[in-house]
Automatic annotation (TrEMBL), chain B:
It comes from the Bacteria. This is SigE family RNA polymerase sigma factor. Residues 17-82 form the RNA polymerase sigma-70 region domain. One of its GO terms (molecular function) is DNA binding. The keyword Cell inner membrane does not apply. Keywords: DNA-binding, Sigma factor, Transcription, Transcription regulation. SUPFAM superfamilies: Sigma2 domain of RNA polymerase sigma factors, Sigma3 and sigma4 domains of RNA polymerase sigma factors. Residues 111-160 form the RNA polymerase sigma factor 70 region 4 type domain. InterPro entries: RNA_pol_sigma-70-like (IPR039425), RNA_pol_sigma-70_dom (IPR014284), RNA_pol_sigma-E_actinobac (IPR014325), RNA_pol_sigma70_r2 (IPR007627), RNA_pol_sigma70_r4_t2 (IPR013249), RNA_pol_sigma_r2 (IPR013325), RNA_pol_sigma_r3/r4-like (IPR013324), WH-like_DNA-bd_sf (IPR036388). It holds the Pfam family Sigma70_r2.
Length: 351, 170
């Protein structure tokens, strides 16, 4: 740079030194680039955070944008506890109003902030299976409709996940009816390139039932899908959906290892506590921690119960600041003879 | 697919510019008297705006100048909107300087930061851009959107205003 620093007076040099030293005290957070990327990525307009002025409510807006990273308190009940794992510049961790207290929407509801479970699909070795994220959204939809809306229109936070539904369908309503959960769509439901009709149907069923349970409603009910109010004989011209459809066996359709916390892209301060669920042989889950592509630590942990979905809690302790990738997978008792073990991965930053 | 290529070129450029300039721009913004959390937001806004207009501005040198100008104007807007900003927490606790940082920064830095706070905005901008940003007079002029002559007078009046504080640690 063409600065005439050599011509500075001693006074000017002292000013320069003092400014440098004052500035050095400022250590920006580690996730600036991630925050910029999130904003430069193509995001549907309704999902963008409301920006109040230039600098107002910045922490809050960032937290809403980050969303998604929610701890679970149980194993398979899709109920988030109200703590986000993503840090924000604001001093207070914004808390989400508990979804369980959301009243049924029999009048036009106001816009509210909801945290909803959303199922996607991922292939971690054994073909496509359902995976779940939690998204925090501002919406005037019911909790069930909001979750289905996310599933249809919002990209997953985890780059390994994807929806099985092609664009073209929108949700109109999602309410608990007499003995079923009604989800009314409009447009043309169609499949993406993977052509997994049964799993795509289950993606919606899992999302709607999880959202109902999460809102304190009966999530054990089957899901009745309608398009523009009319029953669907053959969804995607491939699967029968005229009668309400219940959840398929999770061991058949869900990814067998699911990391819930930290969320994808989260920033963690203090000891790293990894929580999730797995259905694993002998309740054993293998893990590997990588940094810059190199394995820095590995081991195994146990779920509370074998062979069905049960929670695990892996304490990684204090880690050096940096960005890590954690891969957790099933143990492979067949030694490579059987199907490939399924896994889930998370990238997170320790500050 | 031209659009895709432009988009990914912009992504790459933003990544490079971030690595080279982000920390310093955030620090510059804090010297322009915004809180650290707001400084990060202002600088992130600048990068997002740059990404948006990347197709019209491909020269890396112009990109850096654009970022600086955006940050200066972002901080000015924050000052205008202090009423809004004041409703939000000033400084997250984690961002307060540690004891070690304070010791390293020393009294000189404290004195100069305190003195800067008392200056009119334009004088402060001219001093920070010149003595922290390392910008030339004409670069400062374009970042502040004023004439070279005006830069000169803001800087010299600002320096005079700081002289008292600086005399104490000379």
């Amino acid at each position: 740079m063409n600065t005439p620093e050599e011509n500075w007076t001693p006074e000017e040099r002292r000013l320069h030194d003092a400014l440098e030293r004052a500035a050095e005290r400022v250590e920006p957070g580690p996730d600036g680039l991630a925050r910029i990327r999130r904003r430069t990525a193509v995001v549907p307009i309704w999902r963008r955070p409301v920006v109040i002025g230039l600098a107002g409510a910045t922490g809050l807006a960032a937290a809403v944008l980050v969303g998604g990273a929610i701890a679970l308190n149980g194993s398979d009940d899709d109920t988030p506890v109200a703590t986000t794992t993503s840090s924000s510049p604001a001093s207070e961790t914004p808390t989400t109003p508990p979804p369980a207290t959301t009243p049924p929407a029999d009048t036009t509801p106001p816009v509210q902030t909801l945290t909803v479970p959303v199922y996607y699909a991922a292939d971690s070795g054994d073909g496509l299976r359902l995976t779940r994220e939690f998204h925090t959204v501002e919406t005037s939809l019911s909790p069930i409709a909001a979750a289905v809306h996310e599933m249809l229109a919002a990209p997953p936070a985890d780059p390994d996940y994807a929806t099985l539904w092609a664009p073209g369908a929108e949700v109109v309503a999602g309410e608990v009816g007499e003995g079923f959960i009604g989800v009314d769509l409009t447009g043309t439901p169609s499949l993406d390139a993977t052509d997994s009709a049964d799993l795509a149907l289950q993606q919606l069923v899992y999302t709607a039932t999880a959202a109902a349970a999460n809102a304190g409603l009966d999530g054990s009910l089957p899901v009745r899908i309608t398009v523009d109010g009319a029953p669907v004989e053959r969804l995607f011209d491939a699967v029968d959906a005229a009668e309400p459809v219940g959840r398929a066996d999770p061991l058949e359709v869900r990814q067998l290892v699911q990391i819930n916390e930290p969320g994808e892209g989260a920033t963690v301060s203090g000891p790293v506590d990894v929580q999730g669920e797995a259905a694993a042989f002998e309740a054993n889950v293998l893990w590997e921690l990588r940094r810059d592509g190199e394995v820095v630590d590995s081991g195994n942990t146990s779920t509370t119960e074998c062979c069905t979905f049960a929670p695990f809690d892996l304490q990684l302790g204090d880690l050096e600041p940096g960005t890590y990738e954690l891969v957790m997978s099933e143990d492979d008792p067949s030694g490579g003879e059987g199907r490939p073990p399924t896994s889930d991965s998370r990238t997170f930053t320790v500050e | 697919m031209v659009q895709d290529r432009t988009a990914s070129a912009a992504d790459e450029a933003i990544t490079d510019l971030y690595a080279a300039h982000y920390v310093r721009l955030v620090r510059m913004a804090t010297l322009l008297q915004v809180s650290e959390a707001v400084a990060e937001e202002v600088v992130q806004d600048a990068f997002v705006a740059l990404h948006r207009r990347w197709r019209r501005l491909r020269d890396p040198a112009a990109a850096v100048a654009y970022l600086r100008t955006s940050v200066v104007h972002g901080c000015r807007s924050v000052h205008r909107r202090r009423g809004v900003a004041a409703r939000h927490p000033e400084e997250p606790p984690g961002h307060a300087p540690s004891a070690e940082q304070v010791a390293v920064g020393g009294a000189a830095a404290d004195a100069v930061v305190a003195a800067l706070r008392g200056l009119p905005d334009r004088q402060r901008e001219a001093l920070v851009l010149r003595y922290y940003g390392g910008l030339s007079e004409s670069e400062i002029a374009s970042a502040m959107k004023i004439s070279n002559g005006a830069v000169k007078s803001h800087a010299s009046r600002g320096l005079a205003g700081l002289r008292d504080a600086m005399a104490e640690w000379s």
